[in-house]
């Protein structure tokens, strides 16, 4: 899977959200701005519902928040680099500075799992992580993650 098929440059950002709740709201706002048929509140609620089942903070400063939406046909991704790490209840108890959010169609379970797997694999690459953390230029972030 090509990440550029699900991640738009406009959904790649550097931010200082300050909290887990604020970063999930930011993700909802970014997606709703690019996909006017989607509600930022519905996106936020989908992400929060998943977080209530257990944190999507996978360790090493990374979180992969994800949710299912009934109003989409293809996955949608968002990359957020936090200028200041935030508490995210990650499995290693460390704050998170890189979030790769994923929204998938509610009825496509296998697509959801394969896309999550692709994201996790990409974010396990130490060179990619180093490059992502080194920059706060949004277009460069997009190039690093989709390259």
UniProtKB/TrEMBL annotation:
GO MF term set: protein kinase activator activity; protein-N(PI)-phosphohistidine-sugar phosphotransferase activity
Top-level taxon of origin: Bacteria
Listed PROSITE patterns: PTS_EIIA_TYPE_2 (PS51094), PTS_EIIA_TYPE_2_HIS (PS00372)
Gene Ontology BP annotations: phosphoenolpyruvate-dependent sugar phosphotransferase system
A family per Pfam: PTS_EIIA_2
CDD domains in the cross-refs: PTS_IIA_fru
PTS EIIA type-2 domain boundaries: 1-147
Family matches, as Gene3D superfamilies: Mannitol-specific EII, Chain A
Name the record gives this protein: PTS IIA-like nitrogen regulatory protein PtsN
Classification lineage: Bacteria, Pseudomonadati, Pseudomonadota, Gammaproteobacteria, Alteromonadales
């Amino acid at each position: 899977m090509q990440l550029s098929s699900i991640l738009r440059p406009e959904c790649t950002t550097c931010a200082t959200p300050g909290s887990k709740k604020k970063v999930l709201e930011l993700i909802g706002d970014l997606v709703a701005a690019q996909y006017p048929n989607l509600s930022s509140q519905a996106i936020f609620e989908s992400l929060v519902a998943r977080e209530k089942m257990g944190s999507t903070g996978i360790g090493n400063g990374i979180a992969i928040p994800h949710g299912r939406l009934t109003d989409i046909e293809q996955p949608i991704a968002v990359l957020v680099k936090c200028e200041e790490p935030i508490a995210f209840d990650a499995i290693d108890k460390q704050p998170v500075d890189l979030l790769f959010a994923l929204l998938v169609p509610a009825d496509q379970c296998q697509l959801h799992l394969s896309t999550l797997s692709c994201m996790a694999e990409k974010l396990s690459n130490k060179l990619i992580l180093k490059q992502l953390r080194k920059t706060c230029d949004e277009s460069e972030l997009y190039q690093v993650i989709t390259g």
